[in-house]
Amino acid sequence: MLIKKSVPFLTIWLVMYSFSAFTQNNTLQFYQEQALNNSPLLKDYQNQVAANRVDSARIRASYKPQVNLSSSAAISPVIRGFGYDGAVTNVQTFDGLVNVNQSLDSKRYIRTQTQTLSLQSDSIRNTSRISEQDLKRAVIGKYITAYGSLLQLKFNQQVDTLLRKEERILKTLTQQNVYRQSDYLTFLVTLKQQNLQLTQARIQYQTDVDSLNYITGIIDTGSVILQQPDIQISYPPTLNNSIYFKQYELDSLKLINNRKLIDFTYRPRAGVFANGGYYTGFISPLLNNFGTGFGFSLTMPIYDGGQRKLQYKKLALAEDTRLNYRNFFTKQYSQQIALLKQQINANEVLIKQINDQLKYSERLVTVDFELMQTGDLRVADLVLAINNYLNAKYLLTQTNIGRLQLINQLNYWNR
Q: Do 157 and 259 belong to one domain?
């Protein structure tokens, strides 16, 4: 009866161990949403884009008529014949004017200035998408690690349950002199070692969950059960459609726009103004000093010491830097994708090999347990078979987790 009970465990892993200490069941999607909602960096990017919209509206507003009220009073007394020439100072003056100024800059110049902010916003949005991918990759990586620890914890608990059952059987056989006391102690050492591994696995799992909570901004030190992550391979788009390549395109547009801004600063600039109000020197009748004035201004750059060419040269250097980074990224991108695909395929082959080995190790442990019932097995051989089985299972878990981590790295480039 006892022999038959040990066989199903090794083939279908018994019945799932009850995690009475765990109170929550969280998914990968839950942690991703928490991380995105709690990220101050992503909120910062959103505020930067909003601030650029405000600056763009401010630039347009600055080219509308600017109206202001000004007032001044001045007294230049002449004492005993000493003082400023009254013909120049009017001795005393007072004015209260409403001034209206209107720039006559072209709509193209205004549009070029606002385009600078628009390109900055596009760049910030693209950077925000990249940061979002970085955050998702980090969260998924932590989740996979924690889930791997959970699998190892469950496995250790199941093995511990099995070894305890077999320990009771071996203890009975030892008392019946089927096995020696030293054989029983050898098996007991294996059981105690498994207990230590179980404790270590429990601590490691809680540590990984705490680390996952930390990176996602969750304040919770309680225990949870992580659900199996549904991580499928999502192959990256073509390079030209990638958000990582788009940044270089935006940088190119920024440099082109900066050149336009430089060109506009060397074009004539004109404006008109008008004012109206009260301006008096207290000489003519006061009520006759209400009036108005108007005019225009014109600025035409002629020579600036060659600064324009120097600014062009600086833009050319920036463009050369951009091209160097873009070309290097293009090479790295293709190499990185190919390397990750190769590693994923290698892991899948390894997983098949480990599963084959695990079948033989599982069968050997089952047979050894059966032989132990009749006393036809050395306990040292049983311990060796158990250790081989544990090592194979551990290697399978780590390889599966490693495969998921590689898929996570590949999926990082899928936007």
A: yes
Determine the average pLDDT of the residues in 64-84. Answer: 82
| Residue scoring higher pLDDT (283 or 401) | 401
Q: Kindly tell me if the per-residue pLDDT of 156 is higher than 60.
A: yes
Query: Which of 248, 281, 300 is the last residue in one of the domains?
Result: 300
pTM score, whole prediction: 0.82
Q: Which amino acid is at 346?
A: A
Distance between CA atoms of 319 and 324, rounded to whole angstroms? 9
Q: How far apart are CA 361 and CA 386, in angstroms?
A: 8
| Of the candidates 258, 257, 262, 254, the residue with the CA atom closest to the CA atom of residue 306 | 262
Amino acid letter, residue 364: L
Map residue 377 onto helix, strand or coil.
coil
Q: What CATH number is attached to the domain comprising 353?
A: 1.20.1600.10
Q: How many helices (H) and strands (E) does the chain have?
A: 9, 6
Calpha distance 205→19 (Å, rounded): 13
Residue 292 shares a structural domain with residue 374: no
User: Are 227 and 371 within one domain?
Assistant: yes
Q: Distance between CA 352 and CA 359 in Å, rounded?
A: 11
Q: Is the dihedral of CA 332, 333, 336, 342 positive or negative?
A: negative
Predicted confidence (pLDDT) at residue 310 exceeds the cutoff of 90: yes
Same domain, 95 and 7: no
- Whether residue 39 is found in the same domain as residue 8: yes
**225 DSSP β-pair partners:** 25
Domain of residue 80, residue span: 67-104+273-300
Joined together, the tokens standing for residue 272 give 């008109």
At 89 the pLDDT is 63
Amino acid at residue number 305: G
Same domain, 144 and 195: yes
386 touches 160 (CB < 8 A):
no
Q: How many domains does the chain have?
A: 2
Does residue 279 share a domain with residue 168?
no
Q: Are residues 77 and 184 in the same domain?
A: no
Helix (H, G, I), strand (E, B) or coil at 17: coil
Nearest Cα residue to 329 out of 249, 235, 253: 249
**CB contact at 8 A, 121 and 312:** no
Q: Which residue has the higher pLDDT, 388 or 278?
A: 388
Q: How far apart are CA 391 and CA 199, in angstroms?
A: 17
Last-in-domain residue among 284, 300, 316: 300
* CA nearest neighbour of 99 among 240, 232, 297: 297
CA distance 179 to 195: 23
Express each pLDDT in 157-207 by its tens digit. Answer: 888 888 888 888 888 888 888 888 888 888 888 889 889 989 999 999 999
